[in-house]
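Consider what follows.

. . .
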Amino acid sequence: MMDKVQRRMALSICGAYKTTATETASVLSSLIPLDLLAEERGRMKKKPTEKERALERETTINKWQTRWEQQTTSLWTHLIMPDIRPWVTRKYGSVSFRTTQMLSGHGCFVAYLHRIGRSETAGCLFCGGERDDAEHTLLVCERWKSERAKYRKNTENWTTSNLISIMLRSQEDWDAVQNMMEEIMKQKEEEERRRG
């Protein structure tokens, strides 16, 4: 019962599609699993100090990290975010519907649409690539080269292994990556509507 409630909350907070795994939605929305939160509260004294609360939260996040490493449903998100600790403890940046699509891989990608039966092919309609998924759109497709360059400015090239750390480096970097994702996904959605 708690899992169902948490799933609905996580999907709503990050604006994820219903097909997004609970683990992914929870991480993207930084919503600690309720069982881990209840466990944390059970470990605390009646009036814990700030330091005790911080230590208990660290223990909870570490348990969540272990759970994240063992899950097998969120492959793309896990690839770009193998360590959830920096993400779920960040001090700025909220995700939007389009950012969530890019970070979850569930959205306006032909490979995803093919998987759910809404497209006959998984290939990229823009560059002819074999598979149009979040990684292809975000890092490879030539169609989005100018958008990547516009927002990347003078930072290093974005890769699966550094994208999240770049987003978390500063509010400015967060905004740049998120704005690029928003612009690309908006154009992809418009193209999908045109194709009907």
Notes: DSSP finds twelve helices and no strands in the chain.
